[in-house]
Design brief:
heterodimer; A: 381 residues; alpha/beta; D-Maltodextrin-Binding Protein, domain 2; 2 domains; five-stranded mixed sheet; elongated; B: 298 residues; four-stranded antiparallel sheet
Chain lengths: 381, 298
């Protein structure tokens, strides 16, 4: 897993190079039909790769469609000017017309409606009123080194998924180990050799270090792979860049996120009767970790919604949410501070509770204690 | 200095008192038997001695010190329910668990070789734990419990699952440890093992001590007022004997309250009866166990 992720990225770069070398970005020339019931739509029948062919009746157009002469046709009804309604007919099962077809039809209608009334250059402007180029400035008015945009988004999004997986894998590994030691009673030998605190610390640090090496390799390989990709593949990939503080925050949130989940896993490992049951229980906590990933598209379009502040500060979702938000917008410093503080405090809190029940429940085999009993033990423990 | 000094320990789980005001001591160079019915509190007592759990009140002193992480390195423990890392090799398992007791890799390896050789397990050194039979796994666990040359070894049901050859082998090793001055605590249901191995015993029931002390003294205390007699000739009536129970090859003579075994022997000899066995009947530990525990159940 550690090396597989960078290797897959390498493979992807290779495949993209290969594919783009074989097939250039040529779109198929398409012919579509139209029936002009309103009249006046004769010009501009060539829209890029799409050619429009006029038919006198819908029946003639349907025949041509069935014969395969045209891929689809549309009808401009007599009341088009008042309703804007265009009826489109196709043999394909589609969700909606493709963006290319929609643009071709719109431009064809627009051109014909405005022909002779406004200059051609104006028509071209109406078709595409703006070509938005955004430049981000710093507070001094200079061009900011980090420009944002989709290029900024890719790495944090991919990384947030990897981070979530890494945290889940590491804590599951801890849980499994503990469950196994509980099932085969090795735990008694371990506890007769070291204290419960030492055992807990050793497990959390050992598995955490392994996970950190994994994340470290991913983080370090990312800029190298990016360089390679932008020089060999170019295009969009060359616009990809790492957000500022990304590496530092990725490592910080991996460590804090892992610690929180490791301590939770240890507590669950102690109270559950075996590794299988433990994995079911930890699922309740890994769900919030993954919630930010479900709302990816919402985050992209509404990056300033206050809901994200909640996910940034809520400790279980913070690691993934913060990394994702880094790709979309800036995170105010106070939110980062609050997020890290809450994460640290909740980890310490759970650690204190865990050490109270860890020893007692590690030695209870068979029945899992009820929540009431655990709380009672926490009080008395 | 006593190897173990347990004084007035109490432990409850969820309002149930499992160990109730228990006190005992174990000397160095002795094998001490810890017996009692299921659920009597033996394992809980052992876990408190091993510092796996803490008593609610009372003290445990091991080798003259309060339990601490440092004393743990002087303890060896073979828990009743056993297991090792299945995927790990025999030698690696031993070395890892020895390292937790503060033994460095080289000494652990040397001593592991020695113990594996002694137990005939050397050919299996490179095998994985999952490839071993249950009895073999148990021998490995025993090796783990003594690899660090502990001063006190606690063995919970050490003979369960062992064949007669390995049982004898293990007994021999236990006697060796005793002669080296180590203290051994043996917890088992096998009363004959206790009688064979132990110098002193503690019997607990419902978390309380019901019998404690020298095994021979306990047995003599529980002896019924009878003698076992093997003889040749006609026995007839013997004065002072209230009941004769015939067993295979011998009779058990139950004496009245005023007659001693010595008097009975004199009477038999004076009547010219050839005596080839004369033994004061002490009940087997098993019987004492049933009697004491049975009383507790009433």
């Amino acid at each position: 897993m550690t090396l597989i992720v960078p290797l897959i990225a390498l493979l992807l770069i290779g495949v993209i190079q290969l594919v783009s070398g074989i097939a250039g970005p040529t779109a198929e020339p398409t012919t579509i039909g139209y029936v002009d019931e309103l009249g006046g739509f004769q010009q501009y029948t060539s829209q890029g790769n799409i050619t429009l062919v006029r038919f006198d009746t819908s029946d003639a157009a349907t025949d041509a469609l069935i014969r395969g002469d045209i891929s689809e046709y549309f009808v401009i009804p007599q009341d088009y000017i008042s309703t804007g309604l265009i009826n489109r007919y196709t043999l394909e099962k589609q969700l909606a017309a493709s963006p290319a077809i929609t643009a071709a039809i719109n431009n064809f209608l627009l051109n014909n409606l405005l022909a002779g009334k406004v200059p051609a250059a104006t028509i071209a402007r109406i078709e595409a009123p703006s070509n938005l180029v955004t430049t981000r400035l710093t507070e001094t008015g200079a061009v900011a080194p980090e420009q944002g945009g989709y290029g900024n988004l890719i790495i944090p999004f991919v990384f947030s998924i990897l981070l979530a997986l890494s945290i889940i894998f590491s804590s599951t590994y801890l849980l499994q180990g503990l469950g196994e030691e509980k099932e085969n009673r090795l735990i008694e030998i371990l506890l007769s050799s070291v204290s419960a605190r030492e055992l807990l610390t050793g497990k959390v640090l050992g598995i955490g270090a392994a996970g950190l090496v994994q994340v470290g390799i991913w983080v370090i390989s990312a800029p190298l792979l990016l360089n390679l990709a932008s020089s060999s593949v170019g295009g969009f990939i060359s616009t990809i860049q790492l957000p500022a503080n990304f590496i530092a925050l990725a490592v910080v949130y991996f460590i804090l996120g892992y610690l929180l989940f490791a301590v939770l896993s240890a507590a669950i490992g102690a109270i559950s009767s075996g590794s299988r049951e433990g994995q079911q229980l930890i699922g309740v906590f890994t769900l919030p970790l993954l919630i930010p990933l479900w709302f990816t598209s919402l985050l992209m379009f509404f990056p300033d919604n206050p809901a994200w502040i909640f996910f940034t500060i809520f400790p279980l979702s913070a690691p993934v949410e913060v990394i994702m938000r880094l790709g979309v917008s800036d995170i105010p410093a106070w939110q980062l501070v609050a997020s890290i503080a809450v994460l640290v405090l909740s980890t310490i809190g759970i650690l204190l509770l865990t050490t109270r029940v860890f020893r007692t429940y590690l030695l209870m085999y068979g029945k899992r204690p009820g929540i009431g009993e655990v709380i009672r033990n926490l009080r008395s423990g | 200095m006593q190897a173990v000094e347990v004084s007035h320990i109490v432990k409850s789980f969820a309002d149930r008192v499992v160990v109730n005001d228990l006190s005992f001591s174990v000397a160095q160079g002795e094998i001490f038997g810890l017996i009692g019915p299921n659920g009597a509190g033996k394992t809980t007592t052992i876990r408190m001695m091993m510092d796996i759990i803490k008593p609610d009140s009372g003290d445990v002193t091991i080798l003259g010190e309060k339990l601490s992480e440092a004393t743990k390195n002087k303890l060896g423990y073979l828990p009743e329910e056993r297991g090792l890392y299945k995927k790990l090799g025999v030698l690696d398992s031993i070395i890892y668990l020895a390292s937790l007791k503060g033994v460095d890799r080289r000494s652990a390896e040397e001593r592991a070789d020695e113990l594996l050789n002694q137990t005939g397990m050397l050919p299996h050194k490179r095998k994985k734990i999952e490839e071993l039979s249950r009895g073999m796994g148990q021998i490995i666990q025993f090796i783990v419990s003594v690899i660090h040359d502990p001063e006190l070894v606690v063995l919970d049901e050490p003979f369960a699952g062992l064949d007669p050859v390995n049982t004898e082998l293990l007994k021999g090793m236990l006697f060796d440890l005793r002669s080296q001055g180590k203290a051994l605590i043996l917890s088992t249901h096998q009363m004959n093992e206790i009688e064979e191995l132990c110098d002193r015993i503690l019997m607990i029931n419902h978390g309380r001590s019901v019998l404690y002390g020298n095994l021979a003294e306990i047995k003599s205390k529980y002896r019924s007022n009878s003698v076992l007699l093997g003889f040749e000739g006609e026995l007839g009536e013997v004065r002072g004997v209230t009941e004769k129970r015939t067993h295979k090859g011998y009779v058990e003579l139950v004496l009245d309250g005023n007659t001693t075994p010595q008097q009975v022997l004199e009477r038999l000899v004076s009547r010219g009866i050839v005596v080839n066995r004369f033994e004061i009947a002490t009940p087997p530990l098993n019987e004492i166990f049933l009697k004491v525990v049975g009383k507790g159940h009433e």
